[in-house]
Amino acid sequence: xxxxxxxxxxxxxxxxxxxxxxxxxxxxxxxxxxxxxxxxxxxxxxxxxxxxxxxxxxxxxxxxxxxxxxxxxxxxxxxxxxxxxxxxxxxxxxxxxxxxxxxxxxxxxxxxxxxxxxxxxxxxxxxxxxxxxxxxxxxxxxxxxxxxxxxxxxxxxxxxxxxxxxxxxxxxxxxxxxxxxxxxxxxxxxxxxxxxxxxxxxxxxxxxxxxxxxxxxxxxxxxxxxxxxxxxxxxxxxxxxxxxxxxxxxxxxxxxxxxxxxxxxxxxxxxxxxxxxxxxxxxxxxxxxxxxxxxxxxxxxxxxxxxxxxxxxxxxxxxxxxxxxxxxxxxxxxxxxxxxxxxxxxxxxxxxxxxxxxxxxxxxxxxxxxxxxxxxxxxxxxxxxxxxxxxxxxxxxxxxxxxxxxxxxxxxxxxxxxxxxxxxxxxxxxxxxxxxxxxxxxxxxxxxxxxxxxxxxxxxxxxxxxxxxxxxxxxxxxxxxxxxxxxxxxxxxxxxxxxxxxxxxxxxxxxxxxxxxxxxxxxxxxxxxxxxxx
Length: 534
Hints:
Elements: E1 6-11, E2 14-19, E3 22-29, H1 34-41, E4 45-56, E5 67-76, E6 99-101, H2 105-116, E7 122-125, H3 130-143, H4 175-185, H5 201-218, E8 222-225, E9 229-235, E10 238-244, E11 249-251, E12 255-257, H6 264-272, E13 277-279, E14 282-291, H7 292-300, E15 315-318, E16 323-331, E17 334-338, E18 348-352, E19 360-369, H8 382-401, E20 407-411, H9 412-417, E21 434-436, H10 445-461, E22 471-476, E23 483-485, E24 500-502, H11 513-532
Parallel strand pairs: 6-7, 6-12, 7-8, 12-24, 20-21
Antiparallel strand pairs: 1-2, 3-5, 4-5, 9-10, 10-11, 13-23, 14-19, 14-22, 15-16, 16-19, 17-18, 20-22
Helix pairs in contact: 2-5, 2-11, 4-11
């Protein structure tokens, strides 16, 4: 029901009252039109806006209608919505512009927040602008011609540009709302600001990132594309600039390292120069691909044709090994993509466009890989080498049985039984195509056994999930960074080197577009506090 709040304000001994917008929480059947419902049941409301919206379809497989859960903000005649506008206090820029290494969500949102404080920055991106980057990627998918500097992982927008544009996050931060509102400001549908599981789609987010970059230029920021940071420049225990692969050196007292989870050359460089890091756990596994209509039917029952493409989230914990097996980056109505960054390695990922209308749905199924247990943690880069070994095995298998660009795959039935038949693989969404292979030749035994156990468990939780003709495609290795670049909990500055600010997914502090964007902003807020005290 509505709740009205009156706030008393005393100004010059006069008591004034401000009527705040009313809030309303609704549970409506999915087929009820919200406007019609409001006109009928709350005719005194002249306008409303949605604060949150989520779908509860848990009982749909049993024939019960799915429910939309709404939280609304509503006003009556003579009232108005409160305007939410944050005016940031400008600060004096430092002598040298701050430098962001990487134009992914951490770098772009960090640069935007900094510019809103009146401090323009330099953003260095090893890959190409979003539009041209797509041309490089298309050549890789169709012809196997990899551009090692501009691909699914490198280029304006980061790896998230080709992973469904998911904005779902588990973090709790007031900055999440800021990020969502900025996406809307730059062209995202308004629903992004209030849906519980928002997504932009890889097609829409590319356009939004281009608009965002243009806005940064208007605010005085400088972009350097197609140039890789080869080295950080050091003075004692401080980082004082960067050196690009063309030999150019750029000085700065604020280096924000937001290079993403695949910037291996920078990982190697900082370890060689004793920047404080430690190996971290991550996850490795496969992509599973079902016909979309099948997953929609399993999740939404008889309502499948009336609802959006179905999502799922599945987890299983093995108590004896203390390892988790879980779905990750689920892409309804999506595509399975080849997303490697080296000529001699194969990596898979998934994405969806905004409409989510591909005939297939896919998800990563991954198993926890523990530092110190599954790889030796004496060298902080051994997790990286664990990933590389798997990726190279997949490539070698592809070269043996195909051309080197096709992805190794088998059916779910073959994966569970270990018996490979001579039948052709089912059709796939992947533009790189597939070849039949025994994935035991690619993945470590503990990954295989945990995936098999997890799949059997998932079939109990989501009856029919272990569909015989589902495709198991490997390997999914780039779920997160294999190291953490250590930083102070308060200043967010490197524990070992002043002037260096590790942030985002590549530094081990985020997992997805939204959390990476928030982390970039948090780092900037720390820098601003320092600038205010100079």
